[in-house]
Design brief:
- The protein is built from nine helices and ten strands.
- It is an alpha/beta fold and about 230 residues long.
- The protein has a single domain, classed as P-loop containing nucleotide triphosphate hydrolases (Rossmann fold, 3-Layer(aba) Sandwich).
- The strands form two sheets. It has a six-stranded mixed β-sheet, with helices on both faces.
- A hairpin with a 2-residue loop joins strand 1 and strand 2.
- Helix 7 packs parallel to helix 8.
Length: about 230
């Protein structure tokens, strides 16, 4: 764990007086995909908003590459290597595909790296099309491409399979593993669909009311037990 790229230590997050995450710790290694599992309302999105700095911590620490991100604004965390794809994707519907990706670049002097279009060939074909005219699966790919444009070390994906067809979900898992392998990224994905998590993740972490109740390597996951935990 000392070598972990991302370390979350005893993190506490609240909405007003309501404590959503009472003290969560986990880590992720370089070149690892971790799936954070749990039903709606169990703290997954709250965790991700805290990681990127949208929500303040009430306690604990978030460390990337040995550097604490405490007190940093979201834009500063992006510079430290975090990138965030929120639930619902939130692409810019009236901008073209290319303009959407350019919005994620650290410098407007850069062009869209050809490597990004290599991961998402459909986006290259549609680079002049408005983002709002893409399908849900294509918009999810666009949101990930925009996040990759900032050259992150840690990619945070909140519910990436929401509203996407099963065939596209399979393709998305393959793309994420390809990105991980080629760029050496650490990817943290929040998810409810167990089949997707088993396809994409190296390790699975289950949350219940903001607490980790199960952590398993993918090779050690008992599907029946995991399904029971996700339905409690």
């Amino acid at each position: 764990m000392e070598s972990a790229l991302l370390r979350v230590e005893d993190v506490k997050v609240s909405y007003g007086q309501s404590q959503v995450i009472p003290g969560l710790s986990f880590h992720a290694e370089e070149n690892e995909i971790v799936a954070v599992m749990g039903r709606n309302g169990m703290g997954k999105t709250t965790l991700f908003k805290a990681l990127i700095g949208i929500l303040p911590l009430r306690g604990g620490s978030i460390v990337v590459g040995g550097k604490s991100l405490g007190g940093q604004e979201p834009c500063e965390r992006v510079k430290e290597g975090l990138a965030y794809v929120p639930q619902g994707r939130l692409i810019f519907p009236f901008l073209t595909v290319e303009e959407n990706i350019q919005a994620g670049l650290r410098s407007r002097r850069e062009g869209v790296p050809e490597e990004i279009f290599g991961f998402f060939p459909v986006l290259k074909e549609m680079r002049k099309r408005r983002g709002g005219n893409l399908s849900g699966g294509q918009q999810q790919q666009l949101a990930i491409a925009r996040a990759l444009a900032s050259h992150p070390r840690v990619l945070l994906l909140d519910e990436p399979t929401e509203g996407i067809q099963p065939s596209i979900i399979k393709e998305l898992a393959q793309i994420l593993k390809l990105i991980r392998d080629k760029k050496g990224l650490t990817i943290i994905v929040s998810e409810q669909v167990l089949s997707f998590a088993l396809d994409v993740a190296d390790r699975l972490l289950v949350l219940d009311r903001g607490r980790a109740i199960q952590e398993s390597l993918r090779s050690e996951v008992d599907v029946l037990t995991m399904n029971r935990l996700l339905s409690i």
